Give the backbone structure.
Amino acid sequence: MSLLDMFRRQPNSAQQARERLQILLAHERAGADSPDYLPQLQRELLEVVKKYVNVDDDKVQVQLDNSTDVSTLEVNVELPEAAAQPQPEPQRGQRRRRA
Amino acid sequence: MSKVIVMTSGKGGVGKTTSAAAFAAGLAQRGHTTVVVDFDVGLRNLDLVMGCERRVVFDFINVINGDARLNQALIKDKRLQNLYILPTSQTRDKEALTIEGVRRTLDQLREDFDYIVCDSPAGIEKGAVTALYFADEAVIVTNPEVSSVRDSDRILGVLQSKSRRAEEGLDPVGEHLLLTRYDLDRVERGEMLSVDDVLDILAIDLLGVVPEDQAVLRASNVGQPVILDGESSPGQAYRDSVSRFLGEDIPHRFLKREKRGVFQRLFRRSA
């Protein structure tokens, strides 16, 4: 490294490329073995949950783990703090009326 | 026992055809009877890179459909004794390559050739899967660039799940990384992924690093595999890669700048 380089500290783009790839590929490799229906299942589950609780799209995780004897389907729904408590009356009333 | 090698990458434009031509010529130079087969139906280019585009009469698809015999479609290279080219069709589409037809043709080629080098089309769909399906060894051609590395990772996944060896539960396809268009200056400035970065991410055996060099374009301009330009750095890098593929233990070159002292620099300038 020359003396000039020490003063002119520029961001190292190769380093960024490497880090972005590592994160992305870890994610893509994990998804590569999962069956095709998982994304659809995740979407439909999210729709059902959304009918009752206001959750963000990325707060429902569906994961399938295969071990030799048993496969587990894990559904993880993270509820927002407000939704975990009973919802305020007016909203409930509105919904009842509509139904 | 003959071997089927696929040149694949997922991404287009990274140097599959250049590498297939160079690799096949290199194997022939080393005395092995070799055929290089173009699987990129509709976008035939191997003939051009090999410099035999005016000698194509019948092609791979004609052979599969029974319109021509294999011997009528094979083109003998004019420079190297042991080298043949099987061009593909420029007019058909990728559907014309059936797995059964490819199997028959490759079985027939196995009788006469030590090595069958398959030049794959880009993508991860039918054309690319057909090209890698019968492979014993795969050369993953990759540029030190994010989209190419990502696509290489995808094609490795395809090799491990959709190849014949995977489907029949045989030994997995051998995976070798060929890093092309490597620009040492940019790597040293931190502007390009280094060979170590790419190896860390893809975690496969390194076959060779081919430096970015004008010789590659010059070679394709005149229809000559770049490996025949033994003076050029890509030519040397491909020769080394072929030797490593054949099991020789050869140190990697072109990964570090030659260190020259002040006196050597002065001497060189005056020379």
